[in-house]
Every structure is written in C-alpha cells, then in structure tokens.
Design goal:
The structure is a homodimer of 553-residue chains.
Chain A: E1 2-3, H1 9-19, H2 27-38, E2 45-51, E3 62-63, H3 67-76, H4 81-90, H5 97-105, E4 112-115, E5 121-122, E6 129-134, H6 135-140, H7 142-166, E7 171-174, H8 182-196, E8 200-201, H9 204-210, E9 214-215, H10 220-224, E10 236-237, E11 247-248, H11 249-264, H12 273-285, H13 299-315, E12 322-325, H14 330-348, E13 357-361, H15 366-374, E14 381-384, H16 386-389, E15 400-406, E16 409-410, E17 427-433, E18 439-446, E19 458-462, E20 470-472, E21 476-479, E22 482-486, E23 489-490, H17 497-510, H18 513-516, E24 525-529, H19 530-546
Parallel strand pairs in A: 7-8, 7-14, 12-13, 13-14, 18-24
Antiparallel strand pairs in A: 1-9, 2-6, 2-15, 3-5, 4-6, 4-22, 10-11, 15-16, 17-18, 17-21, 19-20, 19-24, 22-23
Helix pairs in contact in A: 3-7, 4-5, 7-8, 7-15, 8-17, 11-13, 12-13
Chain lengths: 553, 553
C-alpha cells in the first residue's frame, strides 16, 4: 500500500538543522582558520568551488543533490558557547583567546552561494557550487558542505540509474534503512532515492519528514508467527457493501482453497496451515490491502493460500492487491505466478485477478534491473535495499572543494596529475543545447565574460582532451548556476523533495540517450572558454618559469 | 595535534535519542503489528534473535557494536501524537482507530534484551541479541535495531582490520566525514572507527559527543591561499623561554633555508614562496604544533620549506611535530623524507628532528596498510577516509532479526537454503576457551540447559558443517550474553566509547591469530548443544512429515 505525503519542508528543515552542527567538520578547518585569523587574512574575500572529478558508476553523468540541506546549514551556521568551549579544549593551548570570541561572532551573513539547482544533471569537473565570502568562513564550511553533497548526489545518481535501467513503467520501492550508515544515513538514502526516481520508500520517518510516499505490508516473521487457524481472530469479515451478516471468512476461504487446488491439481491437505492463518488474519485486518509475501515456505504453497484468500475477498467485494516474491529466480517465478492468477481469473471470472501486482525483492542490483528488461517477467514493483543505499558499485563520490580566488586574484593548483589541477578564477557555467533540445556541451567562462549567444559560433577547449579546440554553435544557452544564498538569506524558494524529483526527471529527459546509457556511454564535453583557457595557459607558463605554482599577482 | 576528550555519555545520549525516532522503521512493521493487534495476539510473549550469516570482508570474525544506541532507543521508545497522526495518514483507512491509541500507549517496559557486550568479537550465525516481550512491541523494534547494529558493527570490524593490518605501533586517524552517508553516517563512522581500533578522528563533533581524540593541522587550500611573504603577519615569534625580544621569524627562516639548501644541494631561489609563507604563518600561529602538508607543489620543495621553518622553530626552543604526505608513493617518499630529516638532525645537531612524525594520507585501503608492513617506509601516522567509512570491500553487514519463540513454543524457519534456516528457541550462548586462553568454539544451548563446565567433555554439532558431531573439553567457559535491559531500564552501566574500545582490544587479544588473519583465516566453530540439535532435528522431521514447516505445538 502507498500513501502520498504532503510537502513537509518545515519538518525536513528542523531535522537538518539539528543534525549539522558547525562542529561536524574536520579539526584542520579550525587550525587553518586560526592561521588566517592570526595573519589578519580572515576577511579576505575568497571563493571556493565544489566539484567532482569523475562521474560515478562508470556513467557519463551525475545528479547534483544536497543543496537544500546546504542552504539550511548556511542559514543556521553559528557556534554556540558549548561549541567554542569544546574547541578551546582541543585547539593548542597557544591559541589566542580572542580567536574564540571571533568564532562566536561568525555567521554566513557575508557568504554568497551560487549553485546548480538541486536535481540537475551535472558532469565531472564542472563547478557545481561557488562559495564566496570571508576566507575564514568559507574555509570553515568545506567539510560540512562536502558531507551534505557527496552522499546525497551519489545515492540520487544511483537511484536515477536504477530508474533508467528499470524503464518508466515499473514502480520502484526503496527499502534500505536497515543496511544504511545508521539512522540518518538511512533517512538521507530514502529521501534522495525518491528524488532520483524511486516512487516509494519503506521508511516511515522519511514519509513524515520529506513527504516521500511510504509502502509495505508484511515480512516473513509475520507469516512464521502463525501456526494454526486458532490464531485467526476475528474469523469473520463483512461484505464490502455491508448488506449481509459478517461472513465466516475461514470457511469461505477453505471453500475457495478446494476450488483453487482442484484447478491447479494440488492437494489441499498439503498447504501450510500457519501461512494460511497469517494470510487470513492479515486479509481480515486489511481487506483492501491484501498483498502478502508468498515464499515463506514455498511459492507453490504461498500462491495457493493467496489465491484462496484473495478469491474469498473478491467474493465479498474487495479487490486484493497482489503478492510479494522475496527469493529465488524472480523472473521465472513471476511468470509462473501470473499464469496461475490468469487461470483463476478465467476460471472463476474474477477480473480483479487480472490487475494484481507482483512485487519482487531480494538483493536487487542495477544488473538485476537490466535483467528484468531482457528476460521475460511479470514484476510490477521492485523493492531495492542494500545495493541502492550503500551504492555497492561505488560507495562514495569524490566531491572536492577548491580555492579559485582570493582578493580578486585567481588561484590555481597545478599538479603533475592533470586531473588534479584546478581551473582558476570565478566563473559562469553555461549549458549549450543543440537544435534537438539536447544539451551537448557545458562551457566554463570567466565571470566577467559575456554569455555565449544562441545561434552564434564559439571556440572552446574541452577539459579532458588532447587540447584540440572545438568550434560549436548552440541553438540555446542556459546559465547553469543561480545565486541561492546571500547576506544570510536563502534567495530561492526551498524546494520540496517532490519538486526536486520533478527537476531530476526533467533534466534527465533532455539528456541525449547516448549520454544516459548505463554501459559505455558517450562522454559529455565540459570545456573552457577561450579567455579561461588563456588564463590557465598563462598561469601554467608563469608557474613553470617562476617555479611559483600559484599566481595571484 | 591531538586532544583527548573526556567521557561524554550525556551528550552522546542526547544525540542518539534525537536521531532514532520510533518512526525510523519500515512501514510493514506497523501493518504487521496491526495484524497482531487485530487478532488479539499483540501481547503474546515472543522472542526475536539478531544475528548475521556471514563474517564481513572475507574474515572469520566480526565485532559487535551499536548496543549503546540500541539501549537508549529502547529506553526512549514511545510514539508522540505527531507520530501517531502521521501513521493515521499512511495506514489504510480501514485501520481501527483504537489501534492508534494502543500505539500511543506502547513502550518497552515489558521488553527484555539479552546481548553480547558491545565491542566483543563475534561470529557468523550466533545470536548477538535476544529481544523478548510482547509480540507487537518486539516486532516494531526490528528495523531500528538492525539499523543501529549493522553499520556500527561493520565499520567497527573494518577499523579493527585496519588496526590488525597496521600493527599496534602506528597511530591511525579516521578522516572520512566528507565521504560518509551524510552527517550522521560520518558521526557513526568516527565513533565506531575509534572503538574498533583507531586512535584519532578529524571529526570535531565526534570529539564533543563521544570523547574521541581529534586531530588535524592543514589542507592544501591553506598552502595555496598564500602567494607571498607579505601575507605573513605577524612576522615575529618570541623565544620559547621568553628571554629575548620577538625575533624576525622570516629572516631567521630564510637563513636556515640557505643552510638547508646547501646541505641538500638545492637552490633557495627555486623554492615556492607561497608555500613558505603558508608554513611560516602556521608556525607563528602554532609554534608548538607545526605539522604541515608538504606536497602541495612537490615534496622536494615542501620538505625544504619545512626543514627551514622547523629549524628556525628549534632555534627558538620549540619542537616541530612533523610532516604530512598526501600523494604519490607514500612508502618511498617517507623514506626519502626521513633521510633528509636525519641528515638535518646530524648536520645541525638538532635532536628534535629525530622524533619528527611522518603522516601518510591518500586513499588508504586495507591493502595499503598491509603494504606498509611489507615495504620499507617511515610512516608513523596513517589517515584513512573513504575505504574505512564506506567499507568499500563490503559496504553492508547483513544482520537479520528472526522470530525464535512465541508463547513459550520454539519457532523455526526451514528454508531450502540451509544458511537461511533459523535455529529455534531461546538460548544461552557460551564461549569455550582452550588451555592457552584462546576461544575455540561458541556453543548455543537451549536456555534451560545447564551451562557447560570447565574441564568437562561435551558433544556438540557445528552449525556450518557436514553434520559430524564434535567432542570438546573447554578449559574455561564464558557466558557470552548478559541481560542489558528489562522493565524499561538499562541494567548494565552504559559504556563510553573509550571503555568499549578497551573491550574490543581485550576481546581481539584473546582470539587466536589463525582466526584473526585477514586473508584466508581459519573459520571459527559455532555449534549447537545436543539438546538444541535434537530440537532442530525433531522440528525438521515434523515439518517434512506434516508439510508444516513451523512447529509450535
């Protein structure tokens, strides 16, 4: 069963504020900040960029997520007396006491965040967020922002891949709470799996906090807790139209069991009484929501019991919902189950049996989803836990946070590993769209440069290539980042999980299939403008000449 | 730098209570509970067992963790009006309103938890926790308990493996916050990495909440934020003994730079001025805690700058701490660095240079740690992030929670996959110790059975074997589980992280090296007593005969 939840931003907000205290960061942020402060550099206007260097899971795209929590974190950023007292106890005794007063006074009122909107398709090496403000403050924000973006984007991207692998038809249920990194890991997983393309979660708290529709019916323990018909109570059920006395539901079901067994050539004496008792008990409690797990003993046995109870429900006017399979070859079993359900429908003229859903769960991975598309099966809803929430294929996204400007001067780290070099300066990021409406190139320009124009040819330099410049003409140009936070205030409406989910689908929709392929996709081009490329070249040349790898003056 | 924290159970407690609301569970726990309630079975005294089926990471042991949080969760378990209102909105409309009043009245006052103490070495398929009480309540606890135990035990076991791979000498620093599953994933990782054998964390909030010693000095961004000597301020430092006027620290360092370059045959003109400025600035701010990252440009350059600043510090009576390497071949680099440090020590008669520490960080895995033991290197402290907190090798532990008794009758799930069958009944778990003090077998007995006696021969049936019974004589017998919670109260003192950490080391200490081996360890035997084995056989036989897989009567 599923219940849609409303938009519950306030609850989500309270939850995030509580769990991201400003001390949830690495100690070196404070020792470095003390260094800046001691040198009188703490107010120097600086900018950091947040980006990742490789798309996860061997794909050619990622989804950007975590912004909502980052904005709340910035808005509420300040140190309590308790925080400062603790810092006093862990920073070296030589720390000037005035530094702690300085910390106590800090907030994000001078910080400006420009960011890609949450739920947007993004690519490796393009700056997703630019955090600008006093050096001391923007340095202190690093770890918390990375922590909020890394896993959210990773699990959101993973969910999107499950959705792509599954196709739009099947319903996807996230059920990974018990395998996540503790309570909040589970909550984050539920929220961003939904945003990335899942329909439902089993996690009730995620329903409460983020409005994610929740679903679930029964586990094997429910079935195994019953041993005999004596445990079924009440044993009656009223007709849906209420125009009869309550009916003895056990007798009714036993009658149907006989007919079902006859139809399928099975022996009624061989069914599992405890399982039948469990199904009966559940159906009497929730006659509108009958969807039992049918493989506690064997699918054959579970299916007989299901059909008998479901037929009895139908006779009383209720519509049973479906069955869950939790072991073995789900594809084959679902086909067998469907055949039996159709047989019942035909033989007993029960159209409700034609629309029963089959839920498949059991260690589902992206590969399983791909298999579901290639192999005959009748699975309507897929429940995914471990492989979704732990992102088994790649359990972390390597977002980094790099300094690009101090006091108006570009900063660049030049590494022997070209992938580890940074792109200097404050930038604008443009997404170039082709005539068919597909994005084909993301362009990084220096902030003061004019935006590229639709229909106008431009030259640029792909980031990950042999240096051959490209000539392109966009049919449309989108400015990818927006100002999201300034002067202590969030400057765009905070989006609910459902709104961000819609953005994900919209953003993925426009992406060309060749970039969306899960296996061996075409890589997407991220390029530098001529001006930015020239700055990089100049800084590189200067660094080689002067052996001074950072050029600010 | 590292600062030991005190015992801060109260803060830890507040944090956990806030983050494990009773709705942080799967929806089906509520639909099942409704089924029990509707059938009048909700008060039936029942017992569930929590265990995992396979040791993680290819090892033959695991560490049990998460108990502390489970106890607080039990103690505080109750539904608020808001919770119940939300449940009303997601459970089927047919749900009897009286059920919500029932939920509102629930707590754990009738629940008893018997558990292995936190931080104990445990093995696959032995019951770690037994949760007994009214069927409705113990069912509702499932997901939250699994969530609290699974990741805590996994990351604790992972940390213990890093510690075993590293040997006792090296200090281990956890620094995975930015790659964990969101804020609380990071906090849980820091806490249980410490418990599993790490010495330090970079996570300040983990220091505040759990008393984990925190450490850290500087990142590359600090170094790259400096470009010239003009940014160093103040430029003076006082002699440690305070018996001189403040000294021009830049000039002093430049003098040393000349001497160091001469010693090493390097050109002072080739050093990176921004890096030197960053080091100077940090040393002036923290003259007692000088430990810079030296590979922002090149280790050669960073090391020259380090030696110059460190020699200047020594001249003023301070002891520099060490250097951090964050890229490339850490083993080789550390050897080269050590040679230079020794050369300086000898040439300049500076004994402080003999005790400098070398910190190595950069995507360290268990394999890297093993390599550190096999290859020449001079690394004293290792910082581990991603591979520790995400448990890359196996990102989830598969703890399950299975029904073993209802109303005094044993429950058993018999599966075609023997690994998925459960062991029925309420049990005692004994650890049998050999004459050398090593545990050699864990024995599961039915609760009413007398405990095995030291020096007395017994027969038992290994769980994972061909059915051949074993005859063993323990030199000592330990009852592995204790009552931890009953009548709404925690009945054992809540342990601090440091206390649990001590238990981990003690428990690992006694384990025989053949079980501790990281690669291809000998598997440890978990066995059933004769009585328990007979019960299993009887239930299996009964189930085959009656095709009734669960026997309760």
């Amino acid at each position: 069963m599923a219940a849609p939840g409303g938009s519950t931003c306030d609850a989500a907000e309270r939850s995030v504020v509580a769990r991201v205290p400003p001390l949830l960061t690495d100690l070196y942020q404070f020792t470095m900040t003390y260094g800046y402060w001691r040198a009188g550099r703490h107010r120097e206007h600086s900018a950091f960029e947040l980006f990742f260097r490789e798309n996860p899971f061997g794909g050619s795209f990622s989804l950007f997520a975590g912004l909502h929590d980052c904005l709340l974190f910035l808005r509420n950023f300040c140190f309590t007396d308790q925080d400062v007292d603790f810092l006093r106890s862990v920073l070296p005794p030589a720390t000037d006491p005035a530094f702690f007063q300085f910390l106590r006074s800090l907030d994000c009122s001078d910080v400006t965040l420009r960011s890609v909107p949450e739920g947007t398709v993004v690519f490796a090496r393009e700056p997703l967020m630019e955090v600008a403000g006093p050096l001391a403050v923007v340095q202190l924000l690093e770890t918390s922002l990375l922590c909020l973006v890394n896993y959210a984007s990773l699990v959101c991207s993973n969910a999107a891949r499950f959705r792509l692998a599954s196709g739009p038809r099947r319903k996807l249920l996230e059920m990974g709470l018990r395998r996540a990194q503790g309570p909040d890991g589970g909550l984050t997983a539920s929220r961003y799996s939904y945003i990335g393309g899942f329909d439902l979660t089993s996690n009730v708290q995620a329903g409460l906090l983020f409005g994610v529709p929740v679903a679930g019916t029964m586990a094997h323990s429910y079935v195994t807790s019953f041993t005999s018909m004596d445990e079924v109570s009440p044993q009656t059920l009223v007709d849906l139209n209420g125009d009869r006395e309550p009916v003895d539901f056990i007798s009714l079901t036993k009658g149907w069991l006989g007919r079902v067994c006859e139809l399928l050539g099975a022996e009624p004496g061989k069914i599992h009484e405890g399982e039948l008792a469990a199904f009966l008990s559940y159906a009497i409690a929730y006659p509108h929501n009958f969807l039992p797990v049918i493989d506690s003993y064997s699918v054959t046995c579970g299916l007989l019991n299901f059909c008998a109870v479901a037929m009895a429900l139908c006779e009383l006017g209720y519509r049973p919902v479906g069955v869950r399979l939790d072991s073995g070859d789900l594809c084959k079993q679902s086909v067998d189950v469907r055949r039996v359900l159709r047989l019942c429908s035909k033989r007993f003229s029960t159209s409700a049996f034609d629309s029963l859903i089959i839920v498949g769960t059991n260690n589902i991975s992206e590969e399983t989803m791909v298999e579901f598309n290639n192999k005959e099966n009748e699975i309507d809803v897929v429940g995914v836990g471990t492989h979704l929430v732990t992102c088994t294929k790649q359990p972390s996204l390597g977002c980094v946070y790099k300094l690009v400007e101090v006091r108006g001067k570009p900063r660049m780290k030049i590494s022997e590993d070209p992938q580890k070099s940074t792109v200097p300066g404050r930038k604008s990021v443009y997404r170039l769209i082709d005539a068919d409406g597909h994005p084909f190139l993301d362009l990084l320009c220096l902030a003061p440069e004019p935006a590229p124009e639709a229909g106008r040819h431009l030259r640029c330099h792909p980031l990950a290539a042999d240096g051959t410049p490209l000539s392109v003409t966009p049919a449309q140009v989108i400015c990818l980042r927006q100002q999201m936070f300034t002067k202590g205030k969030v400057t765009q409406p905070l989006r609910s999980a459902a709104e961000t989910k819609a953005n994900v689908q919209c953003s993925l929709q426009s992406l060309h299939p060749r970039h969306k392929r899960l296996q061996e996709p075409d890589s997407y081009t991220v390029a530098l403008s001529e001006q930015l490329y020239n700055l990089v070249t100049e800084l590189r040349r200067g660094s080689t000449k002067k052996n001074n790898f950072i050029l600010g003056n």
